Amino acid sequence: MKLRVTITLLAIISFSGCTSPSSLLTAPKIEHESKAHHYTNYNNAPNHKLKAFSKAQHSVGLSTKKDPNYKSFRPILTTDERRYWFNNNMYLLWDRQITRAQYVSKSTSKFPAYKYEFTFIANQF
After folding, report:
1. pLDDT per position in the chain (125 positions), as tens?
2. What is the spatial distance between Cα 112 and Cα 101, in angstroms, rounded to a whole number?
3. Which helix (H) or strand (E) element contains residue 86?
4. What count of other Cβ atoms lies within 10 Å of the Cβ of residue 100?
5. DSSP state of 68
6. Which whole-number Å values give the CA distances from 48 to 44, 87, 90, 115, 121, in the listed order?
7. 101 membership: H or E segment, kind and range
8. How far, in Å, CA of 125 to CA of 108, rounded?
9. Within 13 Å and on the Cβ side, how many CA atoms surround 38?
10. 45/72 Cα distance (integer angstroms)
11. CA-CA to 78 of 20 to 30 Å: which in 3, 16, 52, 111?
């Protein structure tokens, strides 16, 4: 009888050790995953980044003058909202918060007639 009780207790103890708490079943949270969709927008960028971005943006602007196929954005950047959107989108690309493909896709969804120009810009950064 004692042997049967001992075996039963050992079985219960061993099976209880196999049960995992739910916290062990969830995947660990990776630090960069939580920031994957958190973008630093153009208005909230630190000054040192804005200066570097402005310099890079100016350089890209100068390179567009050398390409006869490149159309100016002046006809479509007629409001403050559109200019902000344009600069912010370019900033996200420059700061590697979005990929070149994401930049072109996002930009051409808003202004499809400027695919060449957005691709040109993406390739310059």
Report:
1. 555 544 554 444 444 444 444 444 444 444 443 444 456 787 888 889 999 999 999 999 999 988 899 999 889 999 999 999 999 999 999 999 999 999 999 999 999 999 999 999 999 98
2. 14
3. helix 80-94
4. 16
5. T
6. 12, 16, 16, 30, 22
7. helix 100-110
8. 17
9. 7
10. 26
11. 52
Cα 48-84-63 angle, rounded to 5 deg: 70
Q: What is the Cα–Cα distance from 2 to 4, expressed in whole angstroms?
A: 5
Instruction: For residue 102, give both structure tokens.
Output: 């994401």
pTM beyond cutoff 0.70: no
Rounded Cα gap, residues 78 and 62, in angstroms = 21
Q: How far apart are CA 54 and CA 56, in angstroms?
A: 5
**Where are the domains positioned within the chain?**
48-65+73-125
